[in-house]
Amino acid sequence: MFEQPSGAAPAAEPAVLVQGLRKSYGKGSSTVEAVRGIDLRVEAGELFGFLGPNAAGKSTTIKILCTLLQPTAGTATVAGHDVVRERTEVRRHIGLVFQETTLDDYLTAEQNLRFHADIYGIPRRLVAGRIEAVLDMVGLSDRRGSVVRTFSGGMKRRLEIARGLLHSPRVLFLDEPTIGLDPESRSTLWTYIDVLRRQEDITVFLTTHYMDEAERCDRIAIVDQGTVGALGTPSGLKASVGHDRVRLTTADDAAAAAVIEERLGLETTHERSGLVVLAPDGERVVPQLFELGLTVRAVSVSRPTLDDVFLAYTGSRLQERMAAAGPARRGGRPA
Amino acid sequence: MTDTRSRVQAPVAPVLVARRGLAHEARAARVVWQRDLIRFRTDRGRMVSSLMQPILFLFVLGKGLGAALDTGGDVDYATFLFPGTLATGVMFTAVFSAISIVWDREFGFLREMLVAPVSRSAIVVGKCLGGATVATLQGVILLALAGLVGVPYEPLLLLGTLALLFLTAFAITAFGLVISVRVQQIQTVMPRVQLLLMPLMFLSGALFPVGDALPGWLRLLTHLNPMSYAVDAMRRLTFHYLPGTEVPAQLRSTLTWGDWPVPVWLDVAVVAGTGGVLLAIACVLLSRSE
Asked: Where does the record place the ABC transporter domain (chain A) (predicted)?
C-alpha cells in the first residue's frame, strides 16, 4: 500500500523540472501573461532560491508547481510527477509553507499536526513518532498541547514548517518563510531549516526578499517579467555582474564623475550614497583617484552583492521591493 | 555544486503518505468532521446562542400565540410548533457550521485542506458530517425539552426524530456549502444566508399548518420548499406518539401533491434526495476552486 523508498528512483532525477512554462489570466484583449516561458531544473537536495520582484511571476510559478493552478502551456514535474496529470502524486511528495499562515488557531499544535497526518494519510503506526520528531526538530515539543492562537509569529512559522515536513516530503516549498519575523526569530528559523535539510535530505525551494537568505542557497534563479533572467550559484551570479563598486564622496561629484570617465575610462553612476565608480578591480582604482587630484572625502570599495545582481537583472533592489510591497501584501488574504 | 551531487546519491527517506484509496478518503473526511466537533466543543458561546432562537420560538411564540389560538384539545400550538422548531433550529446551526468554510478560507486553513493529496469530495463529506453532527447535538438538547410542551419521551419517537434531524442537517450543511464554498469573504456570504434562510424557515410549515386553508401561492411555495418535507416527517412522527388524542382540525397539516397526501417515506426521500444533489454540487464547486 505504501510506496517504495523514493531512493529507488534514478538518483539523477531532478527534484523540480520546468519546461517552457506559461500562464496567462483573463481572456481576449485583457489577457495578462504572468509567466512567459520559464525553464528550470532543481537538483535533488538543493536549496534553491527563487527570487524576483513582486508580480514577476514567482507566486504563479509556485502555485503551478504546488498543483494549485494549471499552466496555460509547458510542463512541470515535481519529484518526478507531472503537476497536471499526477496532481495527487505531486501533493504527496511536497511540503508547503505559504506566506500566509494556514494553521487552525483554535486547535493545539498537536491537533494541527494530527489533522495533517490524517488528511495526508500517514500510516497510523508512524504518526505519534513522526509528530514527536518534527516538533523536536523545530523546538516546540513542550508547547504541543498549547492552542496555536497563543503562539508568537516565529513559533507559528516553525510549527508550519514542522507540519510541512510531517509526511516526509521530497521537496519543501518555503514561500517567504521569514517575512514579518524579527531578526532573532529569522535566525532561529534558519537554524532549524539547516538541521532539517541534514536530517531529512530534502530539496528546498525558497522564495525570499532577504539577501542573507538568498546567499545561503546552492543556486538562485532571478525571475523578472515572467521569465528567468539569471540562474546560477550566488558566487557565479556575483561574478557575472563583474564590477567592484568604488563609492566616493567628493567636493563636487558631477565634476569628479566627468574627470574619472575621461581620464580613467571607467563607468560611473550616481546613487543616494554618492558617486559610484564601476571597476573590474576596485583596489587599483583608489590610488588613481588621488593621482587625479580629486578632493576625496570618503572612499570605499565593495564587491558585488546579490543585491547588485538583483539590481542588474531586474532594475530594482531586493529590500526596497519588500519594504514597499511587503506589509501591504501581508495584509491581503490568499485567493 | 559537488556538495549537491553527493547529496543526490545519499539514501533518502520514503514519503510517508498512503497511496490514494477509499480508506484514506474516509480517514480524511473523518478528521475534517473531528475538527468541526473540537471547534464546536471549545466554542460554548456558539452552543448557547444557537439554542436561543428555538427556545424563544417554542416558549414565547408557542405559548404566546398558543394563548390566542384556542384549540380546545390536548394538542396546543406549542406542541404543534415543537417539530418545526427542532427542524429550523437545526437548519440555522447547520448553515452556520457550513459557512465556517469561508472563515477557513479567510484565515488560510482551507488551503491546508485543498493542497492535501485527497479528493475535495472527502473534505465536503467531512464538512457535511461535521455540520450534521453539531446540529444534531443541539437537537438532543432541544429534545430534552419535549415534556414541557406535551411531547412524550418515547424512545422510538426520540430516536426517529434524531435520525430525521441528522438527515435534515446533513442536507442543509450541503446547502450551506453550495452557497459559500467559492466565497472569499464572510461579508459576502452573510447576506446570502439572511436572504435564503428566512424564506426557507417561514415557508416550511414549521410555524403554521400547510393545508387547503392557505392561499394558493403560499401553498405552492411551501410545497416547493424541501424543508417542508423535513418538518412534515418530524411532525407526523411526533403526532403519531402523542398520547391518545385527536389533533384539532386547525392544526392538521398535510403536504399533498395534487390530491395525493405525501407519505412519510416520500418526505424522507425528498430530503435525502435534495441533500444528495446539494452534496454533489458542493463537491463539484470545491473541486473547481483553486
From this structure: 16-250
